[in-house]
Amino acid sequence: MKFTLQIKMDNRAFEDPSELARIIKEQVLNRIDISNNSFGGIDGKVRDINGNAVGQWEIPFVPSKTKENA
Description:
Elements: E1 4-7, H1 19-35, E2 42-47, E3 53-59
Antiparallel strand pairs: 1-3, 2-3
C-alpha cells in the first residue's frame, strides 16, 4: 500500500508557516481517521486557507491477498 500527497506551496497562504500542518491535520488526517479504511481506496483534494486548490492525496485500493492469489 502507498500513500501519496502532493501540495503546491507557492502561493501567499504558505507565507504562514503553519499552513502546511493545518492542511495535513484538517483535510488529510481527519479524513483518514473518519474512513478507518485499512485497505485504502480513499483520496481527496486539498485547499489552502483561502480556498484555492493546492493539491491532492491518495491511498489507493489494494485488494487483500488470499491463499488463492498469494
